[in-house]
Specification:
With about 240 residues, the protein is of the alpha/beta class. It is built from five helices and eleven strands, in the order ββββαβββαββαβαβα. The radius of gyration is 17 Å and the shape is globular. Bound molecules: hypoxanthine.
Length: about 240
């Protein structure tokens, strides 16, 4: 079963026929909210709002472990993450969508593994390719089938937040090879791999990253809402296609 983890700008799927909302408890605590199980295009799907349904949980306070554990526990085997990002690469403009293929992790202090504690044996996962390629291809195919433009590939840098970056930090991220920057890509992707869930993401460019384009002097938070609203309508169409692929 497919799960969608919705980020900023996507706290619900409008066309989902909701069957049940399931409050979940896991050995790692509670997820960001109840899991919404419903039907979309005749297929069962689970939706979870990463920041909570009222958008109250900051990126560094999200219980990523509980979110993924709860999804696995309910029978999910594929996760598509929707994440708003700032565009660093010059051709990634606000409103554009991309399917990243690599990750850089600048977060700190987040619970980033299931393999810790007295009983757990230390386990190293292979993470050379952090996203599941077959799931990336499914997203690209679904976008093509519904005529929505989406960029194939990109390096997603995950920062700690919740503040946005300085212009110098963005210059450093770019030197490191980052194309976009967001705050929730990690440890979510690594935890999904630990649970052997297929995992891929749709990045929604909400703004130029700090110091770039019209964010040269400041990022206009007022503009982000409108950009996301428009772009998320496109993401919803891609998801509707994805479930029937
Ligand atoms: N930086 C970090 N996270 C983000 C941004 C950004 O510019 N835009 C949306 N999420």
């Amino acid at each position: 079963m497919l799960a969608i983890i919705g980020g900023s700008g996507l706290t619900q799927l409008t066309n989902l026929e909701i069957r049940k909302r399931k409050a979940a408890r896991t050995p790692f605590g509670e997820p960001s909210g109840p899991l919404t199980v419903g039907m979309l295009g005749g297929r069962e799907l689970v939706f979870l709002a990463r920041h909570g349904y009222g958008h109250t949980i900051a990126p560094h306070q999200i219980n990523y472990r509980a979110n993924l554990w709860a999804l696995k526990d309910i029978g999910v085997d594929r996760v598509v993450s929707i994440a708003s990002v700032g565009g660093i690469r010059a051709d990634l403009l606000p409103g554009m969508l991309l399917v990243p293929h690599q990750i850089l992790d600048y977060t700190s202090g987040r619970a980033a593994t299931f393999f810790e504690g007295a009983e757990a044996e230390v386990t190293h996962i292979d993470f050379t390719e952090p996203y599941t390629e077959s799931e990336r291809q499914r997203i690209l195919k679904a976008a093509a089938a519904c005529g929505e433009e989406i960029v194939d590939g990109g390096v997603y840098a995950t920062t700690q937040g919740p503040r946005l970056e300085t212009a110098a930090e963005i210059t450093r991220l770019e030197r490191d090879g980052a194309d976009v920057v967001g705050m929730t890509g990690m440890p979510e992707a690594a935890l999904a791999r630990e649970l052997e869930l297929a995992y891929a993401a749709i990045g929604v460019v909400a703004n130029y990253a700090a110091g770039r384009g019209d964010s040269a002097r400041a990022i206009s938070l007022a503009d982000i809402g409108a950009v996301l609203e428009h772009a998320m309508a496109r993401v919803r169409r891609i998801i509707e296609q994805l479930v029937i692929e």
